[in-house]
Design goal:
The protein has one domain (29-273, 327-417). It is 34% helix and 24% strand. The protein has helices at 29-38, 47-56, 105-108, 114-122, 138-144, 198-212, 241-264, 277-289, 300-304, 312-324, 358-371, 378-414, and strands spanning 65-66, 72-76, 85-92, 95-103, 126-128, 131-133, 153-162, 168-178, 180-185, 221-226, 232-237, 268-271, 329-332, 421-430, 433-438, 444-448, 457-466, 471-476. It has a five-stranded mixed beta sheet with strand order 1-8-7-4-3. Strands 16-15-14-17-18 form a five-stranded antiparallel beta sheet. A two-stranded parallel ribbon has the order 2-9. A hairpin with a 2-residue loop joins strand 5 and strand 6. The chain is globular and about 70 Å long. Residues 64-373 form the RNB domain.
């Protein structure tokens, strides 16, 4: 018997919420409630934390520069209210200046206060289809600190210069008051709503990725839909052009931040190794399972950039690529060791989502100091040594939640298919178990191995599907 599992994929550099399963009709409400209980997802904040956040939300900036004349806008999912980033774009000769305003969470949250202690316990905002458990109380994350277009907001502006080749360099960083002109939504934004240069800037950044050999892919969002017969289907919603272009802005700012910290010999970086030879062999078998033609001489990174998320088989393969990777982790600066992110083919950092990631708050403090010729505060440098463990713990928790939600969706989708046969391809064999990829569905499972090698095709039968236990079991037929 075997248990099926499919992990989420999160697009790198995106400023949108985690690409979680979208379940607008709340078809899985009971199962989601159990998941929240199982993983102790907090439903609110302790009273002292909430009180401290409410008091912080009443603070009024006094030393921030006035940049309210700059025409900032935000671009996010329509329902989002925790807005980390706003942007304005300015021509500078042949270059573009990306004024990237980031919510000034460090100004609202003090080291060691009640809000800070709770944030260290959480690490990140946790997302589920029926809601989120915020890193900070909503009075900050969806109110005073969020870059909403209802008044002036304190921000940290990262001014990033993008040259014609798409290379990004930080020109400056400052604390400033900004005023967003509009809350734009991916689903409805028009080209005329966006600043001049938005499309060209994103295109430059994309061309630079291609030259570096970056393997970044943006998997589509998975959506659960009723099939009309009492069951469900998992469908893919490819990312909109507005989403991919917006992600490029965040990517450029984070690359520039990483470069700035690296030049200063300090910082906290995101690192990720490329899939090893065994993982790539498994991916080739997966591509075969989906009927994708991947020439033997073509590197994985090149093949990834050819994928089209509007085609179901290619969308499912994008998710398989993310599963095959060894995952990104945080690493503090270490002399003589280049912090490398294989998917981006460059040093990379997280600085642009402080409302949702604890680590970004400290990276922003470091970059502010470096950009203004000041030493990085000693407490910030010391924190870089502590953060990887905290962020890894939060990532592990979020990963477990994500896997549980997808398992729930899969079992709900296949509950009416018990007894049905499926074609599958062996993608890996380990300790007597063969990992399989279903040919017609983006589902990975394991069955007992039988002298298999990656690439072999077999048939399996769905023996049971239990949404209550989030468990699928397959039996092998060949």
């Amino acid at each position: 018997m075997a248990r099926a599992n499919l992990a989420f994929a999160v697009p790198i550099g995106s400023n949108s919420a985690m690409k979680a399963l979208h379940d607008p009709q709340m078809l899985l409400a009971e199962g989601l409630t159990r998941i929240r209980e199982e993983f102790a997802v907090p439903g609110g904040f302790p009273a002292p934390v909430q009180a401290a956040a409410d008091a912080a939300a009443q603070r009024r900036p006094g030393a921030h520069a006035d940049r309210t004349a700059l025409p900032f806008v935000t671009l996010d999912p329509a329902e989002s209210t925790d807005l980390d980033q706003a942007f304005a774009i300015e021509a500078a000769g042949a270059d573009w200046l990306l004024h990237y305003a980031i919510a000034d969470v460090p100004w609202f949250v003090g080291d060691g206060d009640a809000i800070d202690a709770e944030a260290w316990a959480r690490g990140t905002t946790s997302y589920l289809p029926d809601g989120k458990a915020g890193l900070y109380p909503a009075s900050l994350s969806e109110g005073a600190a969020s870059l909403l277009p209802d008044g002036d907001r304190p921000a940290i502006i990262l001014t990033t210069r993008i040259d014609p080749a798409g290379e990004a360099r930080l020109d400056g960083a400052e604390r400033a008051l900004i005023r967003s002109r509009a809350k734009l939504a991916y689903e409805t934004v028009r080209e005329a709503d966006l600043p001049p240069g938005f499309a060209d800037l994103a295109a430059r950044i994309g061309r630079a990725e291609d030259r570096r050999g970056a393997a970044r892919v943006d998997p589509p969002e998975q959506q659960l839909e009723p099939n009309g017969t009492g069951g469900f289907t998992l469908a893919f919603r490819p990312l909109l052009l507005s989403e991919t272009r917006n992600a490029a802005l965040s990517l450029a700012a984070n690359l520039a931040v990483a470069r700035t910290m690296l030049d200063a010999g300090t910082g906290l970086f995101r690192v990720m190794a490329a899939p090893d030879a065994a993982a790539e062999a498994g991916l080739r078998a997966t591509a075969q399972a989906f009927g994708l033609r991947w020439p033997a001489e073509m590197p994985l990174a090149q093949f990834e950039r050819r994928l089209d998320g509007t085609r179901p088989a290619e969308a499912a393969f994008m998710l398989a690529v993310r599963r095959a990777g060894r995952g990104a982790t945080y690493r503090p600066y270490t002399p003589r060791e280049l912090p490398w992110h294989a998917a981006l083919a460059a040093p990379y950092a997280h600085a642009t989502a402080p409302l949702r990631r604890l680590a970004d708050r400290y990276v922003l403090r470091a970059v502010l100091a470096i950009a203004n010729g000041q030493p990085v505060p000693q407490d910030v440098s010391a924190t870089f040594e502590r953060l990887p463990k905290v962020m890894a713990r939060a990532a592990n928790r979020d990963g477990q939640i994500e896997r549980a939600v997808i398992d729930l969706a899969e079992t709900a989708m296949l509950a009416n298919f018990v007894g049905r046969d499926f074609a599958a391809t062996i993608t890996d064999v380990n300790q007597g178990q063969a990992r399989i990829q279903l040919a017609d569905l983006p589902i990975v499972a394991t069955v007992p191995a039988n002298h298999d090698v990656p690439g072999d095709t077999i048939r399996v039968r769905l023996a049971s599907a239990s949404p209550a236990q989030r468990r699928l079991e397959f039996e092998r037929l060949t």
